[in-house]
Hints:
CATH architecture: 3-Layer(aba) Sandwich
Number of domains: 1
Strand content: 15-25%
Strand order of the largest sheet: 2-1-3-8-7-4-5-6
Shape: globular
CATH class: Alpha Beta
Amino acid sequence: MAIKYIGAPIKEGCTIEGADQGIKVLNKMFDFAEIVEVKLQKESDNKHLLYLNTVVDFLWRLKKTVMKYPDDFVVTVGGDHSLAIGSISACYQDNLGLIWVDSHGDSNTDKTTISGRIHGMPLSVLEGLGAKDLVDVCEQSFLDPKDIVLFGISSLDELEKELIEKQHIKVIYYQDIEKRGLQECLDEVVTYLADKKVYISYDLDGIDPLICTGVNTPVKVGLDEDDAYHVLDELFKRLSIVGMDLVEYNPLNDDGNTIKIISRFKEIIEHYKG
């Protein structure tokens, strides 16, 4: 097994300038096996699903690209979090577990979204919820909500929270980490997902924005730098990890430390999968 890094320079899921530019900055660091370019499509004026046609076209091509490497460990680097619909559905298998490290729940649909940005919808889509064109990318292979963990969450829309609770998704909030301690929360996650093959989808905005500025949608709180590394290290050490996303890097906002964090993440990945 080799590690294959796939570049996914998409910004249309978040509509924020710079989300598409990270791959150019990271190109030498990661030596991408392939970079899936965005091809702008003709769009409707649907304000609940911004850039839907462009995102859907990109997701299908990303999915097909990831599926070319069934015997390798694929890390999809982005780019906004909408890409996870393509990367994770490409790695679908029975009983697949997912840990979503993020400040946001990314569990809106076209019916609940406030912004219309598709990067706020991928987790619901992976469960088979939401707009048909997005759900179709999963080809009827949907994650069971009981196999999903949201980790480090600090910012949810009200209707989104209701949907997460209705789906009975396990959530470890940032406040839980503060109150109970990181290790206890990680132990709980490992126990919960222990009998599964697990995919990690890691959003850089889950890290404290004071130390990780290079993201698209920062929030007020997040993991400190050492804790961010510890989360990734513990997951690789203690679970059977089958794939990973690293998303939402925006070099236009980076003060220089975010790219250093990414470099350390790469070292951890290659320690366990290289």
